[in-house]
Amino acid sequence: MKGLVPCAKIFVRKHSPTILTLLGAVGVIATGIFAAKETPKAMRKLKKEELRKGEPLTVKEKIVIVTPVYVPTGVIAASTIACIIGSNVISHQRQAQLMAAYTMVRETLAQYRGEVVKRYGEDVDKEIMSDISRKYYDYHQINNTTPDKIFHFCEPVTGRYFDMYERELMDAEYHINRNYVLRGYVVFNEWLEFLGLPPVPNGNDIGWSIDSGMYWIDMAHTKTKEKKDGEPVYMLDYLYGPDEDALEEWRDASYVSEPYGDMLPSFAEE
Question: Would you call the peptide bond into 242 cis, given omega within 30 degrees of 0 as the criterion?
């Protein structure tokens, strides 16, 4: 029972736009039902008051008479409007937070790469990235007979380029999905490590979580018009995510103590 409260809070916060939208839809229906139900009562009160007065009622008098009748309907209508507006506000806030995180990641990595190129030259930058990639590829090769050709890829969130065999990339995708399924979430920096790319600021604050309802992180390799060394560059295409608040949900859960530290697996031991 102790764990139900934080889990319920996590669920409500995660799905608050959907919950508010559903409440808004129910409110629209309820408003119509209550309005239809109360209208005959309001008409009877108007007719009764008009007979008592002996002359037609003024607009002001009609409003005063029917207002108490429609109070419940008005409360439901106001609540419905609040739910719809609240859902829209939360959705816009989350989109803004995600774009801010993406922008920060891109700008930081662009500055870092620019400094490396400025100080040591573009060739050194490429050589370093290639060495790092090969270093991290070794730990998750499973009897892999790679083809002869290495492809150029671009990671879209960071804008970083890397070279590897496509089968190596598919192997990395398998391993990140394995951790995702077993643990329930993965952080973005964890994925970068599988690609042999250095971590980025806020990379532990965005990622993928099964709270999204997706139980596999689908990725595609889309061929672009960009060329590198005369060869086409393939863009990684995440069919969903990474989500800016996916890891926040797990961090708040009482049964997860260190989602950014000790909870993360040791890739070298996998």
Answer: yes
Rounded to two decimals, what is the model's pTM? 0.42
Please give the Cα distance from 206 to 189 (Å, whole number).
8
- DSSP notation for 50-105: HHHHTSPPPHHHHHHHHTTTTHHHHHHHHHHHHHHHHHHHHHHHHHHHHHHHHHHH
Identify residue 185 by its one-letter amino acid code: Y
Domain ranges of the chain: 4-89, 121-269
Alpha-carbon distance values, 185 to 178, 196, 215 (Å): 10, 20, 10
Alpha carbon distance 203, 59 (integer Å): 63
Instruction: Give 133-177 pLDDT, tens digit per residue.
Output: 555 444 444 444 545 578 999 999 999 999 988 888 999 999 999
Residues 88-105 have pLDDT tens digits of 888 777 777 777 776 777
| Distance of alpha carbon 190 from alpha carbon 198, whole angstroms | 10
Cα–Cα distances in angstroms (integers) from residue 114 to residues 110, 111, 202, in the given order: 6, 5, 20
Cα(258)–Cα(247) distance, rounded to whole angstroms? 11
Bridge partners (DSSP) of residue 154 are: 161, 235
Cα of 264 vs its chain's centroid, Å: 21
